[in-house]
Amino acid sequence: QFPFGRRLPCDIYWHGVSFHDNDIFSGQVNKFPGMTEMVRKITLSRAVRTMQDLFPLEYNFYPRSWILPEEFPLFVDEVRMMKDSDPSWKPTFIVKPDGGCQGDGIYLIKDPSDIRLTGSIQSRPAVVQEYICKPLLVDKLKFDIRLYVLLKSLEPLEIYIAKDGLSRFCTEPYQEPTLKNLHQVFMHLTNYSLNIHSGNFIHSDSVNTGSKRTFSSILCRLSSRGADVKKLWSDIISLVIKTIIALTPELKVYYQSDIPSGKPGPTCFQILGFDILLMKNLKPMLLEVNANPSMRIEHEQELSPGVFENVPSPVDEEVKVAVIRDTLRLVDPQKKKRKD
């Protein structure tokens, strides 16, 4: 680690948060310029919605969404129109602050008029989305999937998807949203950083039990119930590729302004965290993309009030060590030299 920055050339620069170094003239950097901005909730929504307008059938894996505060009147009008044309439609919406992470500031509403417009939304833009009311449940619990995707290069576009990911579970049995249970975050929100504070959270030593499991353990269960796991994987791969295609044009603009072609500069790669929800019918839906997914392989355990220690997490280790190892193999700077 080089807390004061490093000026000597090296093969791989592994930055903690974002691409920020103008003095790197060689080697490979583990971040793309502009990626953090591109996967913020509003920018991602805009990019995917542009593609939805052009290719509605190809991009039907992203929930209907509106950007607040600017599209609030449009949101109100469209919901009213949809309700008029189908009186039986009883939607729920989820409001996510643009820069929020770890579940911070997310809440559910039944009606557009419930949006907390008091000052905060003006200063804190957000995305509001149709909430997916019929998720696939395992052990009566809602869960999402964190998949790790390596964007190895933009030109040519090279994408690798890790074979295993994490399944992160809610800690209260799921019920469809009603006015009474809207605020029950442990039932509706899958964020690990929220559920870890639930009394029902289970730290497990096994990859197929507890509140965080491997995605492969879920696929095994689905397969044993007769689900078409091959089709599910191909739908997920398609969702990942199409999402990255939606982001690519702007990423290239960022890239060329930071690393002009023809000048010496590093090449970039990046591990992205894709958060995906499976619907009851096994259709994958994109929730969000994380530019800086946590690579921690331990969790904090409270030994006594206020006293924490870090305990290894077998599930995280199983998945994340493989992700880092394979990433380093794929970007291996020595490979070319050995071939030569």
UniProtKB/TrEMBL annotation:
It comes from the Eukaryota. GO terms for biological process: microtubule cytoskeleton organization. Pfam families: TTL (PF03133). One of its GO terms (cellular component) is ciliary basal body. The keyword Zinc does not apply. GO terms for molecular function: ATP binding; tubulin binding; tubulin-glutamic acid ligase activity. PROSITE patterns: TTL (PS51221). Keywords: ATP-binding, Ligase, Nucleotide-binding. InterPro entries: TTL/TTLL_fam (IPR004344). This is TTL11 polyglutamylase.
